[in-house]
Design a protein that fits this description.
heterodimer; A: 328 residues; alpha/beta; Rossmann fold; seven-stranded mixed β-sheet; five-stranded mixed β-sheet; B: 355 residues; five-stranded parallel β-sheet; 7 strands; 46% helix; 9% strand; globular
């Protein structure tokens, strides 16, 4: 098995390179992605190797990045759009929800909207405003789109390739605070299907579900809880739309307790969806109501105080204590 | 009120007009063909308005007054070119071969599309203003990458000219020298908003600020629209980059059948434009210059009537879609929520016959 250690940023870069080698119709488009290699260097070196026609330095207009990718898709190209930061995706919102999500339907299946919109998301990098948001819920609400998030370099390498090959439009959420963390990447075999949730740590007392940068925080919380004799099963949702409820339900039927964690505010969130659905599916297995841990319902705060906004180990363990506190 | 730089080859009275840069290349049969197209599309449009008034369509967006702009542009397209319309380009759809009944499906509210856009090389209607202009530029960038000698034509109005997407599409087309032609039908009104509110300069002047040529053409002169569009498309095909065409015209009817233009504009203005009718001037030309007999004109009218009758029959035959179809083509690949919705509907016993 050919495995190698690399950062998530490098894994994404290698995944993009592989996709471009495999299919000449794959293009990259975004702001500063060519000569600079992207502000996070995810596309570093790709314009040099694949040329300016395939790695397109875009004028600074997000609606046009997505809107022209739609036209390229109609022409048979697969464009990977880079939106520089989560908070800059909103100018493209109209194209994403009105066109990207609906044109397959409107054309009675004739148009294939095989495009990927890469979105560095979530906080934790000490940035200024508009650089740390979690807009995945807006897109998860929109029929016609799929939304996924990687949490490890191995997933980053494989999920970006799977997303590019997929015929549906995919919002690809990258946890920017994990870009520089290293992990093993298996260069030969994809670990899972694109829309599968995976158990990252086996446990028996509480099922805790998260995605993106949150997964690592959940693993840390599980380590701490283990010291106190509480066994947490950590699930990485990976796909936030559609959600893999089967994998989650198998876990909750075993543990009887559920905590769902995310950085976005709680109202109509992915965690709310997980708790509602699993309450229906696992009602007779549940020993406590499902609990959500979220960013507070405020605009993303100045980053000096972001650690008190983002779900941290303490808040997750507090939620675990609460679900453990119900005794039948 | 008409700009001196307006390209016009045929006066409202049907007289030939000399222009230093453009001349009509069309022979007698071709001019007659354009006349036929305009008569038919006007007749089909009137039938559609009637169908809406009789409760058979949810809405209709009339094209009356803009026939020359749409037929001239539509006939200038080469077979391999691709066009991206808004929601009023019935004349262009006709030129591209879209069956009239397919144009009315969206207005009968039995679909959100209507036709196979790849088959006719004419995209599906786009209701959100200006979105399609970016699709056109992206498609044109694909044409460039394929090394193909094809052009892309996209349509929008004076109202949509204020949309960010339209202005972004100008930037992109210029930056990438995309083989795209922007065709703006300035019909003077964005529902109740006059075009003077959308732009303080003639719309075609905007192109210069973005770095490509702009042309204002008499949008009620089918000969001029055809030549101006044809030249812009030819330039785009051979690497000449984008052109903005402003077809200066007038929406004789309402914005849609839900609109009441008497609330915001005066009859005298409409009357002025009725004297610039796009169909009548070609009719005058045909009679005088090409000796087209009234019998031939009557045959066209009869053909248009027959098509209108067939359109009516086709529309009335469009039943309520099977509700289960709402789950089709939402995604290209399997999706659990689609499977679940479909299953639930089947279990509830919902069928096409229910109301």
């Amino acid at each position: 098995m050919a495995t190698t250690t690399m950062t998530m940023a490098k894994a994404l870069n290698e995944g993009l390179r592989k996709a471009m080698e495999k299919d000449p119709k794959v293009l990259l488009m975004g702001e500063d992605i060519g000569r600079l290699g992207g502000v996070f260097r995810i596309t570093d070196g790709l314009q040099k190797d694949f040329g300016e026609d395939r790695v397109i330095d875009a004028p600074l207009a997000e609606s046009a990045i997505v809107g022209t990718a739609v036209g390229l898709a109609i022409r048979g190209y697969r464009t990977v759009c880079e939106i520089q930061f989560d908070g800059f995706v909103y100018p493209a919102f109209d194209q994403i929800v009105s066109q990207v999500a609906k044109l397959h339907k409107r054309s009675d299946g004739v148009y294939t909207m095989g495009l990927v919109i890469r979105l560095p998301f979530q906080g934790g990098i000490g940035a200024i405003e508009h650089h740390s948001e979690s807009p995945e819920v807006y897109f998860a609400q929109t029929a016609g789109l799929r939304v996924v998030s990687c949490s490890t370099p191995n997933d980053a390498y494989w999920m970006i390739q799977q997303s590019i090959e997929h015929d549906d439009p995919i919002i690809f959420c990258e946890p920017k605070s994990r870009y520089w963390e290293k992990g093993e990447v298996d260069l030969e075999n994809p670990p899972n299907g694109l829309f599968d949730a995976v158990v990252r740590r086996v446990g028996t007392d509480v099922t805790v579900v998260g995605y993106g940068s949150t997964v690592k925080t959940l693993l840390r919380a599980a380590d701490t809880a283990a010291l106190e004799g509480v066994s947490i099963e950590v699930i990485d949702a990976r796909s936030v739309s559609p959600l893999d409820f089967e994998t989650m339900a198998r876990s909750v039927e075993k543990t009887g307790r559920l905590v769902a964690v995310q950085e976005s505010p709680v109202t109509a969130s992915i965690g709310s969806e997980i708790v509602a659905e699993l309450t229906q599916r696992c009602f007779y297995s549940l020993r406590a109501p499902g609990v959500r841990v979220s960013g507070y319902s405020v605009p993303y705060p100045p980053s000096r105080i972001e650690d008190d906004f983002r779900p941290n180990v303490d808040r997750i363990l507090d939620a675990v204590d609460r679900v453990m506190g119900y005794e039948s | 009120m008409i700009d001196e730089e307006l390209v016009q080859l045929l006066s409202p009275e049907g007289e030939r007009v000399q222009h230093p840069e453009y001349e009509s290349t069309l022979g007698s049969d071709e001019v007659f063909g354009l006349y036929r197209d305009m008569v038919i599309i006007r007749r089909l449009c009137n039938e559609s308005t009637s169908l809406q008034r009789q409760g058979q369509l949810a809405l209709w967006a009339p094209v009356q007054g803009q026939e020359a702009a749409q037929i001239g542009a539509g006939r200038a397209l080469a077979p391999m070119d691709f066009s991206f319309p808004s929601y009023r380009e019935h004349g262009v759809a006709w030129c591209r071969g879209v069956p009239p009944e397919d144009m009315l499906r969206i207005f009968r509210a039995v679909t959100t599309g209507g036709w196979d856009p790849q088959k006719y090389r004419h995209s599906v209607p786009t209701v959100v203003l200006g979105n399609q202009t970016l699709h056109a530029v992206g498609y044109a960038m694909g044409v460039q990458r394929d090394g193909a000698e094809e052009a892309v034509l996209t349509f929008f109005g004076d109202g949509a000219s204020s949309q960010g997407d339209v202005l972004e599409s100008f930037v992109w087309a210029a930056s990438f020298n995309a083989p795209v032609v922007f065709f703006c039908q300035n019909n003077q009104w964005g529902i109740s908003t006059p075009s003077s509110v959308q732009s303080k300069i003639p719309l075609y002047h905007r192109a210069h600020g973005f770095g490509f040529p702009g042309v204002r053409v008499d949008g009620n002169d089918v000969l001029a629209v055809y030549e101006v569009t044809k030249r812009a498309l030819e330039s785009a095909r051979v690497g000449g980059g984008p052109t903005l065409i402003e077809a200066y015209t007038y929406r004789i009817g309402a914005h849609t059948t839900s609109d009441d233009p008497t609330r915001y504009r005066i009859d005298a203005e409409v009357e002025v434009w009725k004297h610039r009718d796009p169909v009548e001037r070609v009719k005058a030309l045909l009679a005088r210059e090409h000796r087209v007999k009234s019998k031939a004109l009557a045959e066209v009218a009869a053909e248009a009537d027959a098509l209108a009758l067939k359109l009516r029959e086709d529309v009335l035959a469009m039943g309520r879609p099977d509700p289960i179809e709402m789950f089709d083509h939402v995604y290209a690949a399997q999706h659990p929520l689609i499977d679940e919705g479909r299953r639930e509907m089947v279990e509830l016993g919902v069928s096409a016959g229910q109301h």
